[in-house]
Amino acid sequence: MSEPQFESPLSGPASRTDRAKLAVDISEVSDRGMIDLRGELSDRKFAAAAKKVLGIDLPVKPRTSTTHGDLSILWLSVDQWLVCCPRAKIQDVLGELREALTDIHSLAVDLSDARAIIRLQGNGAREILMKGAPVNLLSTEIVAGTVRRLRYGEIAAMVHIVDERPDTIDLYIFRSYAEFAWDWLVETGRRAAAIRLFGQQDPPVV
Amino acid sequence: MTGKPYRLPESAGAGRLTDRAKPVSFTFDGKKMTGFAGDSLASAVMANGQRLLGRSFKYHRPRGLVGLGSEEPNALVGVGEGARHEPNLRATQVELYDGMVAVSQNRWPSLGFDVGAFNNRLSRLFPSGFYYKTFMWPRSFWKTIYEPTIRHAAGLGKAPTGRDPDTYEQLHVHCEVLVIGGGVTGLAAAEAAASTGARVIIADENPRFGGLADIAGGKIDGRPQTDWAALRVQQLAKADNVHVLARTTVAGHFHHNYLLLFERLADHDPQLIADGVPRHRLWKVRANQVVVAAGAIERPIAFANNDRPGVLLASAARGLVERYGVAPGLMGVLFTNNDDAYRTALRLKEAGVGIACIVDVRQQVDGALAEAARAAGFEVMSGHAIAGIETDIGGKAISAVKVAPYSSGQGRVINEEKIECDFVAMSGGWNPAVHLWCHNGGKLKFDDSLQTFVPARHSDAISIAGAANGRMSVGECIAEGYAAGEAAAKAVMSKAKAVRMKPPSTEQEAEKRLEPIWFAPATGKYNEGNKHFIDFQNDVTAADLELAQREGYESVEHTKRYTTLGMATDQGKTSNVNGLGVVSQATGRVIPEIGTTTFRPPYTPISMGSIAGTSVGKLFLPVRKTPVFSWHEAEQANFEPVGEWRRPYCYPKMNEDRQAAVNREIMVVREGVGLLDASTLGKIEIKGPDAAALLDRVYTNTFSTLKIGKGRYGLMMNEMGFLMDDGVTVRLADDHFLMHTTSGGADRIAAWLEEWLQTEWMELRVFVTPVTEQWAQFAVAGPKAREVLQALGGDIDFSADGLSFMSMAEGRVGGYPVRVFRISFSGELSYEIAAPANFGRGLWDSLLKAGEPFGIKAYGTEALHVLRAEKGFIVIGDETDGTVTPLDVGLDWAVSKKKTDYIGKRSLEQSYLKAPNRKQLVGLYTEDPNEVLPDGAYAVEKVTDKPPMKMIGQVTSTYWSPTLKRSIAMALIEDGRNRMGEMLLFPLAGKVVKAQIVDPVFYDKQGARQNV
Amino acid sequence: MLLIRCPVCGVKGEEGDFHAGGQAHVRRPATSDPVNITDEQHRDYLFLRHNPKGLHFERWRCDRGCGKWFHAARDTVTLDFKAYYKIDELPPVELMRQATGYWAEHFAPHLKATKAKKPVAKRNARVRS
Ligand SMILES: [Zn+2]
User: Fold this and answer.
1) Closest residue, chain A, to B234 (C-alpha)
2) DSSP alpha helices (H): ranges in C1-129?
3) How far apart are CA B321 and CA B47, in angstroms?
4) Beta strand pairing status for B452-455 and B384-391?
5) How far off is chain B from C36, nearest CA to CA, in Å?
6) Do A96 and A125 belong together in one domain?
7) Domain count, chain C
8) In chain A, N or C: fewer CB atoms in 10 Å?
9) pLDDT value at B151 more than 90
10) CA-to-CA separations, B308 to B53, B253, B396, C75, in angstroms, rounded
């Protein structure tokens, strides 16, 4: 019996990409563990039990996230969250959550392998995503910490604004679509196709 | 005609956009020509002495330039070669670059000599409605003669050859205010809106901003209008809340202020293409507010043979001179019904272009501009109209016009006078460009003083300003632009500080009222040798419109369709109002009574590439890949699409065809052990105090009685009682289940469960989380499956009792964390083993390695299908088609009689679903065991000489069974279960196949093989 | 291409990010009484839907947002959304009053209840409409 072989969804495509041609940096985030947590906020015991394990409140405001050390919680719906932590800790966190949630109506599932995460870094990242997503990512409401589910290049996806100026954005897609999303980013992210919206431009002639 | 120097000398002080220090060479119809940087293709070709730019669509009449910009109906050209050829571009909008290869259209074999022009001679045979009337009989001629001939003659331009090598993309953008048009009105609107801090996009279809500021006459703050515009553009481009888009056509306006903007990034510069810049970008814009400042389009006058090359709009003549330093001809006649056109005479004279006289239909001409023209020495023939044109043979060049006295309503021409000239600049007044206003339901009203339609009202958050709103002076345009921009921004920006824009001082000659002229009478009967063109692009004449009225097509919508007026790619920019004028005269109704027709998107055509955007090649459709995809690829599997997934159909070895590979893979499973990538299977976790109750309501059978650690095959119906999905659901804990669905049903079933929970059974406390993507799942199937898993090692007891049929276990196998389900879709001893997806490839490799001594081989979806068919298992989508009940396919045992309510139960009680003659699932053995029936073949009891024959059912699955060494099939046959042993007939092309009805379980009826 | 707002999570998005679920307030007979369902009741439940010109009441799902179903009142002529309300709620009273034809009949009992100052819809309570 040997060590289990781990293969992240984008290890192949990422190694074949010429990043120098891209207007922003893109890379795969593969060391993140993810737990899909369902529960009813109307049940006070649920939120309290979750907080006890995770150390922070579940974000209640739609499309926000909370972060505490190496753990962050992303709002997915009014009764659904994505708990992110280092992959190595995932079984411990999941075990503690399930323990704390015994007898509380809830569902916590390890979905660490269900999604691929692509990190975009650099100015213009939002514009690149807007080539595939019909969402106003330049909205002043979309700030660091914002989580937004969307349709990206016709597939279900989610963005998490990790940082701003310059932007660091994590794009979550389901694992089976990872290569499609990566290829889409590589194509629309080409330097030659770069665009920045609303700002200093060369004026057209009159 | 060719070779005349139409390019004005530099001393003429014209051609402000061209750079004479930068010559540019290009070809037009293969002829080498030279222009200057800044030229349009149209201006450059004309500067080379050629005024023949195309042929018309129906009559193939020689045509020249009419307009100045996107309104151009005639000069349609193809630019670029081979795969990069783009047809149907307006030469007026094509920016010249060095090395450009351009061709004219609608001509064969050449522009100068065109065979299709014969249509012109036959034009009496081509009245309106010609296609409807002529190609009716005999019917057989349609396919063989009419259609091929029409297809050869019709069509605009040529399609490019080969795959487009360039890139295109799309962009979704939101803004508070979108301003359409970069003329003075649009610039004012954008400036006012932007001053509030609102995010503003201003787009103009031209490479330059300013609209007609350079030819409109009049000054702003005592300086040329272009100075004012240039300063505004510079400031807007600098602002961090404004995006300025040149070369960008707002092509359509749709519901809730959704707009399509078509940006041409690289058409004008091949170097940009070489650098990889997208050729076009389609902007999908959501704007809170829209301001239409699209300007106005001059209208032609319908006089005899007004389509001859050399007849152009007065604004086009003025623009050619002002912008490109190109003369429309050597000596012209100006034909007008309004004052604005006099600016053309004055500007042309200033540049040294001859105007023989000004023909004005108005009896009294005394406006400031007319006086200025008289003072400049022009002869003004008031109360006159052009009655005809003299041309060379072939109609390619004008030699003179015939001018006659005219008064409104006059029918015949008397005392015509000949004036020599080689071009005519005409102006019938101006039409506001209301197209975009109208795309999504904007209403219009008729304006008497302008004799055209102007905007009335709109239910969307859209406003219209400037010339597009019928304001024809620069002062009104700027004031209205500021007001519209401010109002739009204030409507969006709740806290906006209204920075009241101070309109600049303007000066412009006052204009007197125009006099409408919809038809200038010609010498003789106009329909003999003379044509008064209304729609140049679709070759619709005044006579066509009158004929349509006589034949009863009085509704303007009928007239339009019968004559094709305004239905060309220019969407009637120069023709719609004139057409209504003709109809008005023909019917004696006033124009507002006739009404106007619909303006449809796009404003000007947009490229197919921009519509496809990034979705081409490997990005055409999303493709889903399992964690083992790269292994399948390396093994050169044959793939088949299953939804968005690509699944291996089979793995042919060297010299093996697909059938041989499938047969081999089946026998590997039956005799040894096979490995299947089943990761696509839908998986849903269901948990909560009411989880079992939910399953009892969505499945036909009962799950509340299932023991923990056990699985059960379940059937799902829709409310109509028809099968929609099936699969094995396993109980993980008292309140926790794992549901398996079909590969195609994974998303649909998860949504289905959510819908019932959220909208109907709100009292059920259940959470549903799809987990398909988390797991790689493989079937290890065959008599040696157990040995392989045992060889891998781990903490799971794979013995017959340790993991019995329909049980599951969790643990480690070969070092991998797994869930194992002992279920079988092949009838063999079989395990489905699931591991987290990122371990999928590793586990797969381990299974192959551990299975090597046992001869393990991967098998694909076709072997899977044959294996299940041999066992008589149904596949949703093969044996079912949305009209098949569980009873039809013999799954009565899985339909609960005890449960009071589950989805579809009530429908099963309907008499038509219980009828004895419903089609039922049976097996088929062909009489000749080597004959494999085609999928979907119809069954009959009796074959007659010719159809119709009464069909009693159809084949749903059909295969060669290597296990049984004969063909097998499943079929839905009327009352099939009572027909066991009967012989059915399957009439196929050229033969009739006989097959006997048998039990659909062909192999191992007792199920002994999976129970070991 | 409509613009839609989800009343559950507040997201405003493109029509393509929502799933249209047809006519609102359709009652499933079996949920209350699975035994005594006449053929007519069953037919109406399965197949009978209204397609009014003007004010209409529909179900939508926030596909790319919170995943929740909700109700919307929409004018089928102008395509304007008049109101969004939760899946367990009835439309605002003024819209029930404006409704015509089938919908007027449908909402009449609820409007009567409103006049009697009974709550029209309670959160987390089933609307039997
Ligand atoms: Zn929502």
Assistant:
1) A203
2) 29-32, 39-47, 93-98, 101-115
3) 11
4) unpaired
5) 10
6) no
7) 1
8) N
9) no
10) 11, 35, 7, 51
Q: Are strands B296-298 and B430-432 parallel, antiparallel or unpaired?
A: antiparallel
Q: How far is the C-alpha of B869 from the C-alpha of B892, rounded, in Å? A: 19
- C59 in a structural domain: yes
Task: Indicate the residue among A110, A127, A157 that finishes a domain.
Answer: A110
Residue A3 forms part of a structural domain: no
List subunits contacting chain C, requiring 3 or more Cβ pairs under 8 Å: A, B
Cα dist from B322 to B38, B53, B95, whole Å: 12, 21, 16
CB-closest option in C9, C14, C17 to A62: C9
Burial label for C116, CB within 10 Å (0-12, 13-18, 19+), is: exposed
Q: Residue A18 belongs to a domain with what CATH number? A: 3.30.1360.120
Residue C116 forms part of a structural domain = no
Distance, in Å, from the CA atom of B796 to the CA atom of B630, rounded to the nearest integer, reads: 29
Judge whether A198 lies within some domain.
no
- Chain B touched by C39 (CB under 8 Å): yes
Residue the block writes with tokens 């995932």 = A90
Query: Which of A:87-106 have CB within 8 Å of B?
Result: 105-106
Asked if residue A93 and residue A71 are part of one domain, the reply reads yes
Cα separation, A142 vs A23, in Å, equals: 21
Task: Tell me if A123 is assigned to some domain.
Answer: yes
Domain match, A185 and A91 both: no
Cβ of A69 under 8 Å from any chain B Cβ? no
User: Which of B263, B258, B279 has its CA nearest to residue B205?
Assistant: B263
| Cβ within 8 Å, pair B685-A3 | no
Same domain, A88 and A141: no
Q: CB contact, 8 Å: A78 with chain C? A: yes
Tell me which H or E stretch contains B692. helix B691-698
Residue ranges making up the domain that contains A139:
11-30+114-193
CA distance B318 to B69: 12
Let me know whether A39 and A104 are in one domain.
yes
The pLDDT tens digits for B418-466 are 999 999 999 999 999 999 999 999 999 999 999 999 999 998 999 999 9
Q: Is residue A204 part of a domain?
A: no
Main-chain dihedrals φ then ψ at residue B302, nearest 5 degrees: -80, 95
Q: How confident is the model at residue B924 (pLDDT cuts 50, 70, 90)?
A: very high
CA–CA separation, B113 vs B919, rounded Å? 67
β-pairing verdict for B86-90 and B430-432 = unpaired
Contact B62, B396 (CB under 8 A): yes
How far is A67 from chain B, CA to nearest CA, in Å?
24
Q: Which residues contact B948 (CB under 8 A, 6 or more apart)?
A: none
For residue B690, list its beta bridge partners.
none
Task: Give the pLDDT score at B378.
Answer: 96
3-state DSSP call for residue B288? strand
SS3 C41: helix
pLDDT of C129: 39
- Both A126 and A151 in one domain: the answer is yes
pLDDT digits (tens, 9 = 90+) for B529-547: 688 999 999 999 999 999 9
A61 and A103 share one domain: yes
Per-position DSSP letters for A87-124, written without gaps between them:
GGGHHHHHHHHHHHTTTSSEEEEE-TTTEEEEEEESTT
A103 and A136 fall within a common domain? no
In a domain, C122, yes or no: no
Which CATH number covers residue C71? 3.30.2270.10
Indicate the residue among A110, A144, A166 that finishes a domain.
A110
Query: Closest partner residue to A5 among B213, B614, B841, by Cβ?
Result: B841
Q: 3-class SS at A144?
A: coil
Task: Please name the residue of chain C whose CA is at the shortest distance from the CA of residue A78.
Answer: C66
Q: Is A192 on the interface with B (CB under 8 A)?
A: yes
> A198 CA to middle of ligand 1, Å?
29
